[in-house]
Design a protein that fits this description.
The chain is of the alpha+beta class. The protein is about 30% helix and about 25% strand. Strands 1, 2, 3, 4, 5, 6 and 7 form a 7-stranded mixed β-sheet that branches. A hairpin with a 7-residue loop joins strand 8 and strand 9. The chain is elongated, with a radius of gyration of 20 Å.
């Protein structure tokens, strides 16, 4: 049965998604940005985004945009909120749904990222962003901080095997503050799903550092998170 146009008297708007893609490298939290090659705001720094198509939900649109830029799917992604100020986009009236994603920088498709004229930027050294994208980033970072304290979402930013120094540096980058090494390692030791392996990372010294991993099965069973 054909759809009836119940809402024809109401105005129509464009609906878009924007992806705030976080990564972690060399002790710093990074954000994936691109330089726009189209108007409006050609040549300026932007988040990766796109318009929601007729045959997809906003969640699926965000997953599509993320995969188009990084080549990745099945990664941690969560909605930040809607941004709908009337003059936010000089091109048209566009309402954007923002999502943040956490990925391991080593897993993404570098050639694909370069083809989009995108690069990783230190979260503390961001250039001026178009529209309300800076506001999106700030809200996403606050959401990440809140959730990182109650769920192990930060592990999405790490390789499968990591040192305790890498883990502490990651959480210091997420929270934007230093942590006491002794207390941090005590909390890790009390966290059942963080397992020590037999492998050693020798990239930093001849002696090397023990590598750890997250056991997702144990976390799902216990749901205990103490970091």
């Amino acid at each position: 049965m054909p759809k009836r146009n119940f809402y024809r008297e109401h105005p129509k708007f464009y609906v878009a998604v924007d992806c705030i893609i976080f990564g972690f490298s060399e002790g710093n939290l990074n954000l994936l940005l691109l330089k726009r090659n189209f108007e409006p705001s050609r040549g300026k720094w932007s988040l990766m985004g796109g318009f929601v198509q007729k045959d997809e939900s906003t969640d699926n649109a965000a997953k599509r945009v993320l995969k188009e830029l990084t080549g990745l799917d099945s990664v941690f992604m969560e909605q930040v909120g809607a941004f709908g100020e009337m003059e936010r986009d000089p091109g048209e009236r566009v309402i954007s749904i923002a999502y943040y994603a956490l990925i391991n920088i080593n897993d993404h498709d570098r050639e694909l990222v370069q083809s989009h004229n995108a690069l990783w930027t230190d979260i503390n050294k961001l250039p001026r962003l178009i529209f309300d994208h800076r506001e999106m980033v700030e809200k996403a970072r606050n959401r990440m901080k809140q959730k990182a304290g109650s769920e192990p979402i930060g592990f999405n930013l790490l390789p499968k095997l990591f040192t305790l120094t890498q883990l502490q540096t990651l959480y210091e980058a997420i929270y934007g503050e230093s942590m006491d090494k002794r207390n941090f390692r005590k909390r890790v030791a009390e966290t059942e799903f963080i397992e020590m392996t037999d492998e050693i990372d020798k990239t930093g010294s001849k002696r090397g550092a023990r590598l750890y991993r997250m056991n997702s099965d144990i976390y799902r069973q216990t749901k205990k998170f103490k970091i």
